[in-house]
Amino acid sequence: MARHLITSAIPYINGIKHLGNLVGSQLPADLFARYQRERGHEVLFLCATDEHGTPAELAAAKAGKPVAEYCTEMHEVQARIADGFGLSFDHFGRSSSPENHKLTQHFAKVLDEAGLIREVSETQMYSKADGRFLPDRYIEGTCPNCGFESARGDQCDNCTKQLDPVELINPRSTISGSTDLEMRETKHLYLRQSAMKDELEKWIDTREGWPVLTTSIAKKWLNDGDGLQDRGITRDLDWGIPVQRGDEPWPGMEGKVFYVWFDAPIEYIACAQEWVNAGKGDDWARWWRTDKGADDVSYTQFMGKDNVPFHTLSFPATILGSGEPWKLVDYIKSFNYLNYDGGQFSTSRGRGVFMDQALSILPADYWRWWLLSHAPETSDAEFTWENFQLNVNKDLADVLGNFVSRVTKFCRSKFGETVPEGGAWGPQEQAVIEELSRRVRSYEGHMDAIEVRKSAAELRAIWVAGNEYLQEAAPWATFKENPERAAAQIRFALNLIPLYATLSAPFIPFTAQKMLDAMGVAGQWPGDVAQALERMPAGHGFAVPDNLFAKISDDQREDWHSRFAGVRD
RNA sequence: GGGCCUGUAGCUCAAUUGGUUAGAGCAGAGCGCUCAUAACGCUUUGGUUGGGGGUUCGAGUCCCUCCGGGCCUACCA
Fold first, then answer.
1. In a domain, A126, yes or no
2. pTM score
3. Per-residue flag: A213 CB under 7 A of strand B
4. Chain B bases closer than 7 A to any CB of the protein
5. pLDDT of residue A566
6. Which range of residues forms the domain containing residue A523?
């Protein structure tokens, strides 16, 4: 039995995520976690909310709430929605947890002791009206290069020139609009990633089979320009983890907090501690400490491409630099973006479908199936309502749902709601068993390799095999001259249902459970397909389930299309 | 500007890493079936693999060039 540690990139706290965020990390991570559990492996699947940073403070201010209260509420909201999507986290933690405070401060201390932290004095734009230092992107002004009036402090959106905030003409705060800005001196801690460049590169070079997307982004950062740059790991903010050396104060760093990208990945570890402290587990160290049993753990991270540098470089620099025996990631699965109907999903403009809205119009399995079978693995993918309607209706309602419906209803009308007795498997059934055996092995191979779309395609082919069998066996015709033969055929077909449910559960867990409940058996991964098709012997009672999937109508599609094109709220 | 990814049938994607005649699903067409959610099955029409050039016995795959789409570029996260 293998042990799988699985983490999904932790979603930021300032609002409800859209489907693009979902398919880029949490959903494929859940697919993998569910699959590995079903295969009988030990799994610890962790996710959390990422709660620190300027945007959280601003979102809380906008909501008129203290930031801690705002985060607590939003965490609950995200947890509830995640549950609605069937995301099977063993624990859904918070980067603001006491566990993460302590651990982040611990890492800062040991990194400092290892000589990997340096203090840097720098000047930064300060807004008196806002009472805070402003990140470059929160400053707007006229571009000195092209005259564009809404250039941001880091880059002009019009001419794409990289800017320094001090270069802007008439700079103003985008938070308050105030122009009362000044450059102030401030001191920050930097993680000396440059000192670890060779070690990191050596580590990356020995990773095998990682997605090109993952390694190419890492190599770029390692070798671009002057090589890997040191990174500031502190900020002048109120909300965050206070800068300390372990339990000790850090002279000169009073009133500052750690940068969210320093503490967010550490939450992966802290989350395991939260899991224990919540009473759900009793030993986090055997998942995270190679000196305490984590040596045989296989650790897989899931994330969108924008998160790759932090997971390939910054976090490993933290882990390796600590000199302590923490578990390093074994495989990084990264995703491109999902676009929405010819453009990008936009949180700020409310363009696209957000997780809460998605659940309000259709059950989670519709979304899970479409999103996973179109996961943006090799390039950006696109969501359109037409494509969604077509695929979901065909795959789920027609191929899978209708298969279950026709089999169970035929049996009910001819034999009753009990698996019929008589007859035996013949050459037709043997052929199906052989095909399914081959396909199940192929499906397992794709799932093991986290080839999401290929897995979905193989699963669909497995469903289709059931309809092909029925057409060829034609129990409705057989029944007229040889009811015993028909009984064997329908017994065979009925037994495909729990098999399909088990195989499909990682993709569509809610429906899979309905199928198993109706058939009155528990899910069990088919080691041997022939054996798996004996799960419901003659005489076994079952129920005819309601239709598993209602079809999406043209009217619904058009309604949703117009509803989600515009602005949210 | 630089780097990376990407372009294959009307649509969404494959193609064992240079190897026979580029394959699936959907959509379209035809036939069959009547158990089932007007569902299912079978057959079938669609391709100058973005354009051009090159290397090779052989190129969707490698090289050059042009065109289109996307991402990243380090203080949003």
1. no
2. 0.95
3. yes
4. 1-7, 11-14, 24-27, 32-37, 39-42, 69-77
5. 58
6. 386-532
